Amino acid sequence: MISQQAVAACAHCGLPIPRGRAGEYCCDGCEIVRAAIAEHGLEKFYALRDEAAPARTTSASYAELDDAAFHRVHVRTTGDGRAHAALYLEDLRCTACVWLVEATPRCLAGVEQVRVDLGRARADVSWDPRATSLSVIARHLDRIGHAVHPYRGLDREALRVREDRALLVKLGVAGAAVGNLMLLAIAMYAGVFGGMSSADTTFFRVASAVVAVPALGFAATPMFRTALGALRARRLHLDLPLSIGILAGLVWGTANVIRGVGEIYFDSLAMLVFLLLVARFIVLRHQRRASTAAELLLALTPSRARRIDPVTRQIVDVPIDAIAIGDRIEVRAGDTIPIDGVIARGMSAIDAGLLTGESRPVDVGPNDAVHAGTVNMAGPLEVIAVAVGEATRVGALVAQIDALSSRRSHLERLVDTIAGRFVSVVGAVALLTFVAWSFVSVALGAEHAMALLIVTCPCALALATPLAVTVALGRGARRGILIKGADALERLATPGTMFVDKTGTVTEGKLAVATWLGDIDAGGLAAAVEAGSAHPIARALAANAEPTAGATEICEELGRGITGLVAGHRVVVGAPRWVAGQLAPGKHSHDGWVAEVTRRGETPVAIAIDGTVTAVAGLTDPIRGGARDALEVLAKLGWKVELLSGDDPRVVASVGAALGLPTERCVGAASPEYKLAVVDAARAYGPVAMVGDGVNDAAAIAAATCGIAVSGAAEIAIEAADIYLRSPSIEAIATTARAAVATVTTIRRSLRISLAYNLTAGALAAAGIIHPLVAALLMPASSLTVLASSLRSRAFRDRSPS
Amino acid sequence: MTALYIVLPLALLVAAIAVGAFIWTVRSGQLDDVDTPPRRILFDDDD
Fold first, then answer.
1. Mean pLDDT computed over A86-108
2. Chain A residues with CB inside 8 Å of B12's CB?
3. pTM (2 decimals)?
4. ipTM summary value
């Protein structure tokens, strides 16, 4: 449909420049950022960059960052008079971004240092408050493409850092212990075969104990702690048999060193503790990637508001925390509404897509309610605050998501159940071994029973799940599929009902002209008037035909339509009712065409030339190429796919029909609350997956057994989801579902391997024919087999890259 | 083999010092962010 003749590339991001946009840039964001880069001589940015994306800037003044109230909470001043603050930066992606942000001291006088933490999207800024202010720095960062938010949740962050460091120290200690204990053990094993004086042997045994007991006792504390917690709560946990094995090994080994007879297993134990900590570390790293809900709420709603003084009616820019219920606030056109409130004055159109998923703006006037997070499209509004912060509708959604996310977790049910049986079986067998061997000698009984407890320590069992999941997560991440954890994969592996929010998942997510009724030549005229507009409908019409000529006298009425003069013709394009109002009364406005287009579930746009409607265009969001195949794959895996969207029911029905879904499985006009109710109801019948992209889906995503957010999703939806797809396609969902099944298969295989090992080792120990050297070989061997099995996983291995 | 009685504790002492150094690096925050520093080496110091 679109003829691509020599598409010009944006001078900043390299993406094609949309037709009808003058200049070298694809968007205003890119133009501003490019100018800022050139102004400060930072062109090296382009050499460092490895992925290009369109830049986004805002026109925020950041005046609230200089507020005394803000400084008290977020800014720290050191003895040398320098101020320090942590900022949360948007769109922090790559090396070049780090360089650009860290180059700030070269661009602004008074800025001492900016240090970026890429993983946390955090910048630590220190500056001289006499020479510059935080708002100046924030405006600069914004102008180079990184919108700024105060970094809240520093306490939680500090807690996380402490946790990470503690685990890392334990990992290091365990690693050092493994290395040294192995050297000692090798000497002793050599001594077994080559002969070693008893004094030397004793020396080596004592040295081993001196290294092993404190090091392992310290490094294994996380395992002991969870085991103790599980014991107190009378729950089963894998750490219980692990702790028993480790403790038995340490106590019995020490006893044997003191007695001077009997075997010691310190080297195998150290290896086991080390591998367990490695697995734990890998899992923790993956969990940390997800950012916190608090940061996301900030990204959704503005952190400042324009309060109108009740007496003087002067407008002051204040931090959102300063707004009280009953305050009057001015919301300019194009601004996001910061609070829930009631309109006191003004008429406008509101884009409530964030909350409702409805892509078309809603007209509002005095006494209408507006919600935080929605966007004021047309005119200035005066709003009386009804709810602020967490009390707002979006705040309540976030709170709900938090509650729902903490409700679930604990995938390791299966492993814990196995661990539970494991404890009782191993315990019983150990007792049996002790009793049986006691007929020979009590000491021998104790020796063999202890050996059994140690060698059957289920290390491979503990590694099986994290390893398989990490492999799947890593491979998925390389394909732009971010999976939050083992739970997510496991839940996606059990098929049930999958609810798909239509917008952006099965469709292209971009309007295009689907139907054209009437004069075909009117298309060129319409394209000419729409060429300069950024409205999605305008973009679709502009892309539909070659503009006939340049347009003049363009007058755009937000949310309604546009008029202009093209080659001597007066052209009016817009919503049919508005266009009819623009024409002289009596002229027919082709209600039949409009009805026809509406019946098809398309958005009607009327085009009038010189006072007569000559054409009606039907706009729709076209279906993605691979959507049907992907639905087939999902159906084969056992998923029952349903559409559940906030869009117009007719639109949803037509998309459903195009995909071959029965009508009763296509629900439109679903409110966030309704979606949540549907998902909750469906959960009674089995697993539920919810695929969505808006804040309106977030609660439903969190409530589903497996929530999936797709590209372009509001960050809150990403937070709520178990899986995030960077490419917003149903194909990627099918790939992920298949990978989930493959991962669970791998986990099962690993569990079987590990149980087979334990059976063998247990039998050998019970028979009394195990030796520390055999244990030292068998224990890592089982772990390595599980590792190999995990790496051989077929997850994300299908040939076609998504 | 009497040399062992001196060398072995010495070796363990060296290992303990290494572990101590590692703990210091962790506690001083040098390993808190492992994503950004590897990118910083790509920046030239001269500009």
1. 84
2. 180, 207, 210-211
3. 0.66
4. 0.91
